[in-house]
Design a protein that fits this description.
The complex is a heterodimer of chains A (90) and B (280).
Chain A lengths: L12 E2 L1 H7 L4 H8 L3 H9 L6 H11 L3 H4 E2 L13 H4 L1
Antiparallel strand pairs in A: 1-2
Chain B lengths: L20 H5 L4 H23 L17 H17 L13 H41 L7 H5 L4 H26 L5 H5 L7 H21 L6 H18 L7 H28 L1
Helix pairs in contact in B: 2-3, 2-6, 2-8, 3-6, 3-8, 3-9, 4-6, 8-9
The chains are: A mainly alpha (90), B mainly alpha (280).
Chain lengths: 90, 280
């Protein structure tokens, strides 16, 4: 079996817009804190770009959350439909 | 890095102090960039046609001295600049602000552009064989007795120079063009979407129609002044962009620069008219 093509790769969903809004951060501020271009933050939020492992770790460290709380293979449940926080669910 | 950032209020990330015509003409959406990428390819094809065949050149009198229309010398760098700005100069080597996504996008673009350039070189060699050889026969008066082996080594030098320049234009364009074709919509598009300015589709239509009309007039009526159509459309787009951003259409300094430029342009046109009427 050969390598999967880029199109065949499953998308990676993230909660960056929610996390950023919770902390009242602009894309520019988050980008400066993480050390990337502010456009890259936008592309990450829109799902146009999947981060490297290094960038994912940097974001996790910045938000003080595990990577799987920020990125996931499946879409995140909207906060309004959650009955408990991810920490409580664990 | 693990410390939380202070929850300071969000500020506008990119407040542009002054909108120039370059900003107003920069394609931010992928759709617009793809339109201008296609336009640039057409321009290069027309350029090749102008190099190899007088029928696509101004003053084509059949003696091999056809000139490339003036509008081509304006449109080629302008459209290339639009694409370059539209990709935020990711193609600039060793740019200090490139992050991992930018570098990945740039590397992918170069990887795709390289085989495309190989195709262009092959096409260029085909053009040279098809037209350059015929040109050499005319210019060196090779008769019917000359064998193909003798003739094929006599290539008109202008065909070689033109081919070299044409391939150089492709080599400069292909990485930028590939990026322009592949990059997602820029974030600035979201910021300017409700700005009430000229929409990208309308702006592209205005510039595209002016460019097409200028090219058609230049080629059919052999009038280099038709290039002004495209320049005027660019100025209009710039003025509307400034107005949409709440700025005066032109600053005092810019008025002086534009006035000097227009004066020089009018003088150039006047001299051209006087010299052409005097000569013929």
């Amino acid at each position: 079996m050969g390598r999967r093509s880029k199109e065949a790769e499953k998308p990676i969903f993230n909660r960056l817009p929610v996390l950023r809004a919770e902390r009242h951060l602009s894309r520019q501020q988050l980008a400066e804190a993480i050390g990337v271009n502010y456009q890259t933050i936008g592309y990450l939020e829109r799902g146009d770009y999947s981060p490297s492992l290094d960038l994912a770790f940097r974001l996790a460290e910045f938000f003080d959350l595990p990577i799987e709380a920020i990125f996931a293979r499946e879409p995140f449940t909207p906060t309004s439909r959650q009955t408990s926080t991810p920490e409580e669910a664990q | 890095m693990s410390t939380m950032a202070a929850p300071t209020p969000a500020t506008a990330p990119h407040e542009r102090p002054e909108v120039t015509w370059r900003d107003a003409a920069t394609p931010l959406s992928r759709a617009s960039r793809r339109r201008w990428t296609g336009c640039y390819v057409v321009l290069l094809m027309l350029l090749a046609a102008g190099i190899v065949d007088d029928a696509f050149a101004v003053s084509g009198d059949g003696d091999g001295d056809g000139d490339i229309p003036l509008i081509m010398f304006i449109a080629v760098p302008v459209v290339f600049g639009m694409l370059r700005r539209g990709t935020r100069r990711i193609t600039a080597l060793d740019h200090p602000e490139l992050d991992e996504r930018d570098i990945h996008a740039r590397t992918s673009a170069y990887r795709i552009a390289f085989p495309l350039l190989a195709l262009v070189v092959l096409a260029g060699l085909g053009l040279l064989a098809a037209f350059g050889l015929e040109e050499s026969k005319r210019s060196t008066r090779i008769d019917a007795q000359t064998t193909l082996t003798e003739a094929i080594f006599v290539i008109h030098p202008w065909a070689l120079i033109g081919l070299g320049l044409w391939i150089a234009l492709w080599a400069a364009f292909l990485p930028t063009g590939t990026l322009a074709w592949r990059e997602p919509d820029a974030l600035e598009l979201e910021l300017t979407a409700d700005g009430g300015g000229l929409g990208e589709a309308i702006r592209d239509a205005v510039l595209g129609v002016a460019l097409a009309a200028g090219l058609a007039i230049s080629l059919l009526a052999e009038m280099d002044a038709a290039a002004l159509l495209f320049v005027a459309a660019l100025a209009l787009v710039g003025a509307l962009g400034r107005r949409a951003a709440g700025q005066p259409a032109m600053s005092r300094q810019r008025k002086w620069r534009v006035a000097i430029g227009l004066t020089l342009l009018m003088a150039f046109v006047a001299i051209a008219i006087v010299s052409s009427s005097g000569g013929g």
